[in-house]
Amino acid sequence: MALARHPLGLLAWFVRRPDREVQVETSGYSISNLVADLRHAVSGATDEGDILSRVRPLAKRAALSKDSWLEERFYAANPEQGFGVYLLHEESDHSLAVFAVSWLPHRGAPPHDHGTWAVVAGVDGPEKNEFFERRDDRSRRGYAEVKKVGEKVFGVGDVLAMRTGQIHSIWNESEAVSVSLHVYGKNIQHTGRSQFDVEKRTETPFVLKLEA
Q1: Looking at the 3D structure of the chain, how many domains does it have?
Q2: Looking at the chain, which terminus has fewer C-beta neighbours within 10 angstroms, N or C?
């Protein structure tokens, strides 16, 4: 079982384990089904570890049920940004947001956090995640020291669960567009999250360009 250290001293993990593969029903599981189950899963839950444990199998099921919701247009990506972001659902208060994200070949996203918990499931193609720890005391505005502490390639059906504050980057090393399903405790456009430049030691806002 591959593990990557969480910057807060915890662990990020993924759900596929060859020794104990979980059987998942993948027929007819739509985004509306996912949202209904997500609402039930997070209702009344306050511990992020508990929330992530509940959300992981739901995200996996939805990812493996792509024929129920994945559209051809979701493969289109913004060439300037390097990836395409499609909002599939969010609650009226911007909580419990679900996105489909497509990644152009040999493109990705820089190290970043989310400002909320996050669960990402592989839908089509592999995506390399690199994990980082923040080493500075956060006392200087716009300054950050982050260090890579691990990496893992996630494929179809693999699930990455991250607590608030975890920093990672994503890269599509393949020759084809990849797609992943992202579930967040809050719409990441409304969390004030950051991106990090490892060499320049900077922290800046990370705001995405959403597709129509």
Answers
A1: 1
A2: C
Euclidean distance between CA atoms 79 and 75, whole angstroms: 12
pLDDT digits (tens, 9 = 90+) for 30-55: 999 999 999 999 998 999 999 999 99
Asked if residue 26 belongs to a domain, the reply is yes
Buried b (16+ CB within 10 A) or exposed e, 105-142: eebbbebbbbbbbbbbbbbbbbbbbbbbbbeeeeeeee
- Give a yes or no: residue 212 inside a domain: no
Asked whether residue 210 is domain-assigned, the answer is no
Q: How far apart are CA 177 and CA 175, in angstroms?
A: 7
Q: Burial level of 192, CB count in 10 A (0-12/13-18/19+)?
A: exposed
Residues spanned by the domain of 115:
4-205
Residues paired with 134 in a beta bridge: 146
C-beta atoms surrounding 202 within 10 Å:
14
CB 201 within 8 A of CB 144: yes
- Answer whether residue 31 is part of any domain: yes
Average pLDDT score over the chain:
90
What is the CATH number for 129?
A: 2.60.120.10
Query: What is the SS3 assignment for 152?
Result: strand
> Which secondary structure element, helix H or strand E, spans residue 13, and what is its range?
strand 11-14
Strand order in the sheet with 178-186: 4-5, 11-14, 159-162, 118-124, 178-186, 95-103, 83-89
